[in-house]
């Protein structure tokens, strides 16, 4: 990749040129689709609030699918941004794909989304420059043992097909994922993420972290296994809802009884009427089209505790006689919004009274997937609260609890304010998944050891 700074227009021209060239390369009876994924990201690692490493990552990946009759084959390749070099790579890829089509069997569930569409989202967002971000973090971290990573910048997504589907999408976002360590080794973990960077909001997160650090210096409280009144902060709720994203709302998983929400689907379990969850494609950072050329739709998933929708890919639509709604092959919601409640966030300790304040959870897994029973560990700034006041940090404990208890009969309330959670995943490339979530006050949360 060229080391010079690439503009939004450069990536757009790169995509447009490749699409136009592919149209000229098709043989009789052939069709193509092109998925274009790029980023221009700044990564900054911090240690003790100072820069440990700073780097810029600029990369472009493209997935080309060639279709002939009922046969299709695809290849993903890394591009350079140089038109001539990238055309040559695509030409080699087309030769390989044609050879594959000659020997592949027909795909009985192939359902091509050959609609004509145009979707265009221009850059929207404002992030600090590297120097400004470093100054903010260094100032806010003064006197703290702060370790974290900043990842931010534009992400580009494009789709084009020989049938006339065409989309271009630019999302600008950043996250600062960091921990503040006490001298005793305990830590407060905070993630601040935004498309419009707000220095005051970041300062408020640091102030909250400093306050919680003072409590981490107190002697730890070890609890006996049992059930406890509990407040789950939005970061903890994120861990729980993220578990449901994998197969929870998938049409394929629901049809084959592999979804953790199958009991809700069958009516043998229920959630609280306070719980409503939707896939909000129109407000998230992901594009309004997917890598297969289907247009993503806003989709209610749970309304007042009832399962009312599912994520349906074109393949599941063909196999199970459903109507596709823009889900990709993973059938995973990517722009989740959970309805807010009425409990002010500033009042959660008073509403909790005596019990657990859980700042985060980790290492979650299913102990009984069919019943949506999850197990995991408390972590990062979890406290014992008495009479609405934090009195001690908690020793790490394991929980084992059903979703139908946490967000069913035992759900007492949800916070009025919600936290925007932008994915911090950088595996292969930065992710644009978002979750907008409240905190949850729960009665009878089960700790096992």
From TrEMBL:
UniProt-listed SUPFAM superfamilies: Putative modulator of DNA gyrase, PmbA/TldD
Biological-process GO terms, alphabetical: proteolysis
Domain Metalloprotease TldD/E C-terminal, chain residue ranges per copy: 225-445
GO MF terms, alphabetically ordered: metallopeptidase activity
Coiled coil: none
PANTHER family in alphabetical order: CONSERVED PROTEIN, TLDD PROTEIN
Protein name listed in UniProt: TldD/PmbA family protein
